[in-house]
């Protein structure tokens, strides 16, 4: 076959999905148009998924399983493809977050996801799409996951959430004046909840700031702790006490150095006065 693109299933989840789709199709002697007719798509769409140029949606994955009689094989593999929009280690962290009794956050540059308004979150993901970092489909999945995570905070009993934001989080303009104004209002409202503590780590903290990267610490029901930290390329969930405990100590030191909640809310309110 001319111009046949060879696939390396080890290259990425998307390549593995496309390779399996092509293999099962060819085993049955079907052309791309034959499979397209069975799945309700075009042959061009099938080709794009097989070669990794298009991300399989949940509907596409379900249709593939139905066409091949593979149970939920493609649905499970499709979820792995779409989760490539998330840093390695983050899905593992989310599974622990929904079980946590206490959540401690430190963030740089942007407001933590759990505290974001829908408009602020959409602006962040739109920026990622424009840079080519993720696809529009991946952006939609990322926003859906964030909404589910935020909803989980309303469980009973609600987890205690401690958030320390570097000053850059509240000063960085995201999404325009109206979006940032609503986001500042959201932070002030968050601080008023009975199960939250909000603090700002000001710029003048300088070298006394305990962390140089975003960090999240979770306390689980059995009082064990896990830590999640990430760089631009990778996230890591840490469970070993000897590694987590120093991070927990550093977080407590950061809370002692950061502004009180009263002063932090006053700082946010002052910024809000300059917004529409």
UniProtKB/TrEMBL annotation:
A Gene Ontology MF term for this entry? DNA binding
**Name of the protein in question:** XRE family transcriptional regulator
Report biased composition (Basic and acidic residues) as residue ranges. Answer: 1-11
The UniProt entry, under Pfam families, shows: DUF5753 (PF19054), HTH_31 (PF13560)
Top-level taxon of origin: Bacteria
PROSITE patterns in alphabetical order: HTH_CROC1
Q: Which InterPro entries match?
A: Cro/C1-type_HTH, DUF5753, Lambda_DNA-bd_dom_sf
**Chain segments carrying region Disordered:** 1-20
Q: Where is the HTH cro/C1-type domain?
A: 21-74
């Amino acid at each position: 076959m001319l111009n046949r693109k060879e696939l390396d299933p080890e290259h990425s989840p998307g390549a593995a999905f496309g390779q399996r789709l092509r293999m099962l199709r060819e085993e049955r002697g079907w052309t791309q148009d034959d499979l397209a007719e069975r799945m309700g798509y075009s042959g061009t769409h099938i080709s794009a998924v097989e070669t990794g140029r298009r991300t399989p949606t949940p509907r596409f994955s379900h249709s593939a399983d139905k066409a091949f009689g593979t149970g939920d094989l493609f649905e499970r593999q499709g979820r792995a493809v779409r989760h490539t929009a998330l840093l390695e280690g983050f899905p593992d962290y989310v599974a622990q977050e929904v079980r946590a009794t206490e959540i401690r956050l430190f963030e740089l540059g942007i407001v933590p996801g759990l505290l974001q308004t829908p408009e602020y979150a959409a602006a962040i993901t739109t920026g990622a799409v424009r840079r080519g970092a993720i696809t529009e489909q991946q952006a939609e999945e990322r926003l859906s996951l964030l909404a589910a995570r935020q909803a989980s905070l309303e469980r009973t009993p609600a987890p205690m959430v401690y958030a320390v934001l570097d000053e850059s989080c509240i000063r960085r303009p995201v999404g325009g004046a109206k979006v940032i104004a609503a986001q500042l209002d959201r932070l002030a409202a968050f601080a008023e909840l009975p199960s939250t503590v909000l603090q700002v780590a000001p710029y003048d903290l300088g070298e006394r700031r305990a962390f140089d990267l975003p960090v999240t610490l979770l306390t689980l029901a059995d009082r064990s702790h896990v830590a999640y930290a990430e760089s631009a390329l990778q996230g890591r969930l840490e469970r070993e006490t000897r590694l987590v405990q120093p991070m927990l100590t550093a977080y407590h030191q950061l809370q002692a150095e950061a502004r009180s909640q009263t002063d932090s809310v006053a700082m946010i309110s002052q910024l809000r006065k300059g917004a529409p």
